[in-house]
Design brief:
This is Zinc metallopeptidase. This protein is mainly alpha-helical and about 220 residues long. It is built from 7 helices and 3 strands; from the N terminus they run ααβββααααα. It is about 75% helix and about 5% strand. The chain starts with a helix and ends with a helix.
């Protein structure tokens, strides 16, 4: 019973808490202006140029916290609030996404590995539950095993994402400080924004691992019987 409650807590409470933390932290620091009064787009452009990434473009996209780096198009895409905003949050998030562009330019190993996992992880995410539920309903443990294997690739993708995101945040802090975009007294609030954003990836990884353990246990217990 206790194990089941822990599983439910990880599945439901942890992601909700992480999302709430991100939203509250972003809301707080999106109202705090950065000392140099530069927009997120300006922050991104300066860091890109400082690292010789003149070919990487910056685009505005709709949505809240829809910011991302597109390695195929070599584009840093920033949500409207962060693209135009002068806040501490906008600067932190823009620098984080540029951190991914720097990873891409340097062929960062974990980023390359994550890119290689995308096709099979996407397939695993779509197909795993079909095989697992079908196997349980039909009492065909072979199908459950196939589903667990598919799921393991999706989980691996989530785990590999963690070092990629943490490294991008570390690069963001280094670039923001070395370029003089933020002052010493702004480092603490920048770290809070970056750490809050990282929680969503940690929560996603915990949920993925919990799901894999649950269904792997179903398969193992069925075989023991």
């Amino acid at each position: 019973m206790l194990t089941y409650l822990i599983y439910i807590a990880i599945l439901l409470i942890v992601p909700f808490w992480a999302q709430s933390k991100v939203k509250s932290t972003y809301k707080k620091y999106s109202q705090v202006m950065n000392a140099n009064m530069v927009t997120g787009a300006q922050v991104a452009r300066k860091i890109l140029d400082d690292n010789g990434l003149y070919h990487v473009r910056i685009e505005e996209v709709n949505g809240m916290l829809s910011d991302h780096y597109d390695p195929r198009s070599k584009v840093v895409r920033l949500s409207s609030n962060n693209y135009h905003g002068y806040s501490a949050a906008a600067a932190a998030i823009a620098a984080h996404e540029v951190g991914h562009a720097i990873q891409d330019a340097e062929s960062y190993a974990f980023l390359r590995f994550r890119h290689a996992l995308v096709p099979i992880a996407g397939l695993g995410d779509k197909m795993s539950f079909i095989f697992i539920i079908g196997g349980i309903v039909l009492n065909a443990m072979g199908l459950v095993l196939v589903g667990v294997i598919f799921m393991s690739f999706a989980v691996l993708f989530q785990l590999v994402t963690l070092p990629v995101e943490f490294d991008a945040s570390n690069r963001a802090m280094t670039q923001l400080v070395s370029s003089g975009i933020i002052r010493n007294d702004e480092e603490r609030q920048t770290k809070k924004v970056l750490n809050a954003a990282a929680l969503t990836y940690v929560a996603a990884a915990l949920v993925a691992v919990a799901e894999l353990i649950r269904f792997a246990s179903i398969f193992l217990l069925a075989n023991d019987d």
